[in-house]
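Supplementary Methods. Inverse-folding protocol.

Structures were first reduced to a discrete structure-token string of length 161. This string, shown here, constituted the complete conditioning input.
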């Protein structure tokens, strides 16, 4: 089993803030599947992450995660371009918990505020994140690698977590 990492308070605060989250996995042939997450919650010990994905919008991504358990997620703040990538294993699809719903609404409001700084209308963001109740699933995984992806000389460097 690959080594797992434990996220610290600063990394958790970043991941749970109003960031854009792009999620990827891979199919049987190694080709990528992609989608967007609607938020993130790091579990209390910092060794598991839950992403909230609209299953009807990302059926291939969800199927690939179910099959392989492999996941990569890129978290980026639109107002600063600060970006972090997590890779993980043992990803599982789960139902949302009450704590997930609270995290989800806070994340979307923070994301709207960050995008407003760069000129994106809040109504547009709300429309994009508008989904039917029950369409979201939680994808829970154990991060085993973290990388800085912020543009600049440190982009691609492994974070020592």
């Amino acid at each position: 089993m690959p080594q797992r990492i434990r996220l610290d308070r600063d990394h958790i605060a970043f991941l749970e803030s109003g960031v854009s989250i792009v999620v990827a996995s891979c199919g049987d042939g190694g080709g990528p599947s992609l989608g967007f997450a609607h938020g993130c919650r790091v579990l209390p010990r910092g060794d598991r992450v839950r992403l909230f994905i609209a299953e009807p919008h990302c059926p291939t991504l969800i199927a690939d995660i179910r099959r392989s358990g492999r996941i990569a997620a890129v978290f980026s703040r639109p107002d600063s371009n600060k970006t972090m990538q997590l890779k993980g294993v043992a990803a599982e699809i789960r139902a949302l918990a009450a704590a997930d719903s609270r995290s989800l609404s806070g994340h979307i409001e923070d994301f709207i505020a960050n995008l407003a700084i760069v000129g994106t209308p809040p109504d547009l963001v709300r429309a994009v994140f508008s989904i039917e109740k029950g369409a979201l699933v939680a994808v829970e995984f154990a991060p085993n690698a973290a990388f800085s992806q912020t543009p600049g000389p440190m982009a691609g460097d492994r974070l020592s977590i």
